[in-house]
Amino acid sequence: MITSSSNSQIKNIIQLQKKSKTRTEQGAFVTEGIKMFEESKDGGYLIKAYVSEMYYNEKLAEDAEYFKGFPYEVVADGVLKEASDTLTPQGIMAIVKKPVYDLDKIITDSHANLLLLEDIRDPGNLGTIIRTAEGAGFTGIIISKTSVDMYNPKVIRSTMGAIYRMPFIYVEDFKQTLNQIKRNHIPVYAAHLNTDYNYDEVNYPEKCAILIGNEANGLSDEIADMSDQYVKIPMEGSVESLNAAIAAAILMYEVYRQKRKNNQDSGTLE
What we know:
Elements: H1 8-18, H2 20-26, E1 28-32, H3 34-43, E2 46-52, H4 53-62, E3 72-75, H5 77-83, E4 92-97, H6 103-107, E5 113-117, H7 123-135, E6 140-144, H8 153-159, E7 168-171, H9 174-183, E8 188-191, E9 208-212, H10 221-224, E10 229-231, H11 244-266
Parallel strand pairs: 2-3, 5-6, 5-9, 6-7, 8-9, 8-10
Antiparallel strand pairs: 1-4, 2-4
Helix pairs in contact: 1-2, 7-8, 7-11
């Protein structure tokens, strides 16, 4: 059992929690909680689990076989709490492999519904967006390199496991990637206030992409100008804009609503 926070494995967990560079070097990140641990184990991403002494004894009392079949360490309760990024850790953490996705495969999907994110900075927003994209049936997310790190612990928690299922990729040249998307005949719709077209007045084709910009500044002019059409979310009162995750959710679910309607009208069920 690990009984000291100076243990090299605990130090490594803390570094993985705090430093994007360490996560990049190891191709790994840290998850916390039972749900995230079980999804990483079931999905084949688990490298090693770290279990508090209390949680270990509780699970053994429920199921003597629970800890068989995967690598783990039992850790003193106080030490695991020190390594945790949360105030109330659930008793289990894990180091897991980063999922790897292919940009060309994401773009050339015959049913591509893509979410394009430029300079998203808030971890909670990004995690919520990933989770919502899965719910809305989107097939991939493409993220500018200036955005927050997907493997930031706050992002990971907000995804609620969707990080293992929702294909995403960071790109060095966002403009070049937009050109590649357009060459693959995927029209791009930008969330933008400078338009008369409301988001629910547009007919979205089967393949399309939604473009969302920075929380404070929106899309850069250069990127916005590359879209095929601006769409806006109408608002009452004095509100000028919506939270990026909320805006993304509204637009993605409109695409999903139209797709479901078209499938129902044609007698096709997905």
